[in-house]
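Researcher: Excuse me, tokens okay?
***
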Amino acid sequence: MKSIRFFAIAAMLLALGGNLQAAPKKITVAFYNLENLFDTEDDPTIDDEEFLPTGKNRWDADRYQRKLEHMADVIAQIGDEDGPEVLGVCEVENRKVMQDLIATPKLRDRNYDIVHVNSPDGRGIDVGFFYKKDVFTYLSHRALNVSFADEPTLKTRDILMVKGLLKGDTVYFFVNHWPSRRGGAASDGKRKAAATRTRGVIDSILTQSPNAKILLMGDFNDEPTNESIKDVLNASGNEKELKDKQLYNAMWDLKQAGRGSHSYQKEWSMLDQMIISQGFLNKKSKGAQYVKKSANIYEADFMKETNEKYKGQPLRTYVGPKYMGGYSDHFPVYLQLK
């Protein structure tokens, strides 16, 4: 009798273990503003003078390497110990710094590839896209230029759209870094222009494929409740009452809870966001699905200020002219798919 009971328990544990092993790994999609990831070489076509060995920031090889390793330390831990399968970034100078980043010891074995385009931004900072080649199959990409009717000569970062296959289904990723808030309310129209450009392309996709899977990520320099996001982009935080073609802002609840990805004068803002189409919420559709309540901010203690005055805020590389040797002025955001 004891032997029968033993074998019955063993069979049950074996079956349970098999089921646990069969559970598919969740896919982490993240975004990180790397805050001025410049190399040390002069590019005469952009304004990179501050980030040169002879420039104001004394940006030499040691500081550059430390910055790369710090960014890699963060990226390697976003979501889980494997790091994100898909990662959008902004404030990168060029493709070279992206290549240097994934060549660091923490990331070199993660099987990342790169999508990058040079933006017309005067500072020379671009958006970029990393993906693990064994998870995401790249198909194509497109740079969406943003123009301003009232300032036709003004240049800003392109929006990068990457199309590929994830879990056997077509997915569209949009990596954004919208115009800054410099100038106060007068700058609102610039972000609305970026939202209009993005929304136009999204509408074209949804017209052809109403259940398309679209994921927007980026530093939008606006809150989930601002007009550019809520009205122009048409992104809501109410998942249960989404209207036709309306997007779901996965960061909405975090914002309502008082959290943020960026701090200015000790006030937190949710400038970095993850926004998805309803295709990720439709349980009947094939391919990747959004893991509910998985949207979050990665804010480990090692990335934070310990100084009593600024405790808990992002530990930056520079504060004004002072070199801090930190990370970024933003925390990364992420969500998970299954």
Q: What stands out?
A: DSSP finds six helices and 17 strands in the chain. The chain has one domain: 25-337. The CA atoms of residues 136 and 166 lie 5 Å apart. The helical segments are 2-22, 61-75, 95-102, 188-208, 227-232, 252-256.
